[in-house]
Amino acid sequence: MAIRKRVLWGHRNPFSEPRLAELHVLVTSIRQGIRPRNVRGGRIFENKEGHLPAREHGYYREYDVEPTSPGRHRGTLRIVLGTGGDVYISGNHYNDFRLILGIPG
Predict the structure, then answer these.
(1) Does the pTM of the predicted model rise above 0.70?
(2) Which domain holds residue 5?
(3) If both were cysteines, with which of 1, 59, 68, 98 could 55 make a disulfide (CB 3.0 to 4.6 Å apart)?
(4) Domain holding 71: CATH number?
């Protein structure tokens, strides 16, 4: 399975990745229908490789978290949100995932 680690969200950002410093704010905003400037997406993540737990079609949605402009590469940092509250991140374009536990939103 491609979920390499489960990360417990706490009082501080557990990642050295600055783009994830406000991950809890990004997730809360996306779930409220507000898309921050640097976040693109909302497409259904089909989980074709089966890296995430099997769920019905449409359960997962994918988001790019990169400062992008039209015609530029989308980058490799992704957030995948499940309708049941699951939060996964992939820093390498879906080669592996980290499940974030306890994130508000």
Answers:
(1) yes
(2) 1-11+43-105
(3) 59
(4) 3.10.450.30
> Are 40 and 74 a contacting pair, CB within 8 Å?
yes
Structural domains in the chain (count): 1
pLDDT at 1: 46
Told to judge if 51 belongs to the known catalytic residues of this protein, a careful annotator would answer no
Please report whether residue 77 resides in a domain.
yes
In a domain? residue 75: yes
Sign for the pseudo-dihedral over CA of 77, 17, 29, 66:
negative
Per-residue pLDDT of the chain (105 residues; tens, 9 = 90+): 456 566 656 656 556 667 777 888 889 999 999 988 778 889 999 999 999 999 999 999 999 887 656 666 677 888 999 999 999 988 887 888 889 888 876
Instruction: Note if 62 is an active site residue.
Output: yes
**9/21 Cα distance (integer angstroms):** 11
Q: Which residue has the tokens 């979920």?
A: 3
